[in-house]
Design brief:
The protein is an alpha+beta fold and 84 residues long. It contains two helices and two strands, in the order αββα.
Length: 84
């Protein structure tokens, strides 16, 4: 069971909302991050939008860098001949 925290926030006159610090910290949000709002039966869920490169960085941190030198295709690399 997850801990449940309830935090109030107020919309500005321009209908903008500041995400409270406790929520930003919990989701690991920082400036320029993107978020996803999901509505399900009247309940709104907010989560960090992890793009492809964020996921690559996360996995690289967990498993190390898997980069290798460019493959050597050998001297037979050349023009492909397709018979008629």
């Amino acid at each position: 069971m997850q801990n449940s925290i309830r935090i109030k926030a107020k919309l500005s006159s321009k209908n903008q909302l500041t995400i409270p610090k406790a929520i930003r910290d919990s989701l690991g949000l920082s400036d320029q991050d993107k978020v996803i709002f999901q509505i399900n039966n009247g309940t709104v869920t907010l989560k960090k939008d992890n793009d492809f490169w964020d996921e690559v960085k996360r996995q690289e941190k967990a498993y190390g860098n898997l980069s290798t030198d460019e493959l050597d295709w050998g001297s037979d690399m050349g023009e492909e001949v397709i018979p008629k």
